[in-house]
């Protein structure tokens, strides 16, 4: 009788010990390889769950064959079947990919600096010739006609100055686009080179307002979306024409 009780006790102890085995490892971001903290790890087979620590390390009781589910807000859940007790790294994929910031530094002056330099070089057209107001305000004299504005409106020099100012402003708008929509930046995103890159940039060149105001994320998304259109167009035009039946 004592022998039987001893065997039952030993069997219960071994069984309890087997159930207390643990599997450990780390949880990592699939794209950045950074460790992810506060991930919920649930053993759906045994019904227990834990959270990993601030270092992304986990240690959960599990048996061979148990199913573990790793979940965290902002990531797709991942499932792991316990096949052995080796330490495991679990890689979670973001539900939205975070784009890395790409900073492209031009060796030339930025558009604002170039415009300021141009205004200094053509200071006459931005001096008295730049006065477009026909009405002028004089202290104590009320509203009167601006002699400079009248001269600008009817003289050849005034008209030429206005035309030059418009040309300079138009060049500034194009410089803003070129500064942001440059070959290095676009080539890095699309992987295009040489003639293909030139064709892509010409066909999908953004306007001034978008280039000046779009966020980095929106600007990259714009290029990626147009790159998909470019690939579809290339695929369409690369299809061989149907041969006439003989």
Labels describing this entry:
Immunoglobulin-like, 8 helices, four-stranded antiparallel sheet, 3 domains, single chain
Strand-helix topology:
Blueprint: H1 2-19, E1 22-29, E2 40-43, E3 48-51, E4 57-61, E5 67-71, E6 78-81, E7 88-92, H2 111-121, E8 135-138, E9 142-145, H3 147-154, H4 156-180, H5 183-190, H6 194-203, H7 208-213, H8 216-238
Helix pairs in contact: 2-4, 3-4
The rough form would be described as elongated
In percent, how helical is the residue content? 40-55%
Order of helices and strands: HEEEEEEEHEEHHHHHH
What's the end-to-end separation, in Å?
A: 98 Å
Radius of gyration: 35 Å
On the 0 to 100 scale, the average pLDDT is: 75
- What share of the residues does DSSP label as strand, in percent? 15-25%
Total DSSP helices: 8
CATH architecture of the largest domain: Sandwich
Give structural notes:
- With 246 residues, this protein is α+β, with helices and mostly antiparallel strands.
- It folds into 3 domains: 15-92, Sandwich (Immunoglobulin-like), CATH 2.60.40.1120; 114-180, no CATH class; 181-233, no CATH class.
- Helices cover 44% and strands 17% of the residues.
- It is built from 8 helices and 9 strands.
- The strands form 3 sheets. The chain has a 4-stranded antiparallel sheet, with no helix packed on it. A 3-stranded mixed sheet has the order 4-1-7, with no helix packed on it. The protein has a two-stranded antiparallel sheet with strand order 8-9.
- Strand 8 (135-138) and strand 9 (142-145) form a beta hairpin.
- Helix 2 (111-121) runs antiparallel to helix 4.
- The chain starts with a helix and ends in an 8-residue tail after the last helix.
């Amino acid at each position: 009788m004592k022998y039987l009780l001893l065997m039952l006790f030993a069997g219960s102890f071994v069984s309890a010990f087997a159930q207390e085995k643990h599997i450990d490892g780390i949880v990592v971001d699939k794209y950045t390889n950074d460790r992810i903290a506060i991930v919920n790890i649930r053993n759906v087979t045994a019904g227990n769950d834990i959270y990993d620590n601030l270092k992304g390390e986990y240690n959960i009781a599990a048996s061979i064959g148990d199913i573990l589910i790793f979940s965290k807000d902002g990531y797709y859940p991942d499932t792991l079947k316990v096949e052995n007790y080796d330490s495991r790294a679990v890689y979670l994929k973001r539900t939205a990919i975070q784009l890395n910031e790409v900073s492209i530094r031009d060796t030339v002056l930025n558009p604002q600096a170039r415009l300021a330099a141009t205004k200094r070089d053509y200071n006459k057209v931005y001096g008295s010739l730049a006065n477009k107001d026909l009405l002028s305000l004089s202290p104590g004299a009320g509203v009167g006609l601006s002699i400079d504005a009248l001269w600008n409106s009817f003289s050849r020099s005034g008209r030429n100055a206005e035309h030059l100012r418009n040309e300079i402003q138009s060049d500034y708008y194009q410089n803003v686009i070129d500064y942001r929509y440059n070959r290095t930046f676009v080539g890095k995103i699309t992987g295009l080179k040489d003639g293909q890159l030139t064709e892509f940039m010409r066909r999908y060149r953004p306007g001034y307002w978008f280039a000046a105001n779009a966020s980095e994320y929106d600007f990259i998304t714009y290029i990626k979306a147009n790159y998909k259109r470019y690939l579809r167009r290339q695929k369409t035009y690369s299809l061989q024409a149907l041969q006439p039946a003989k």
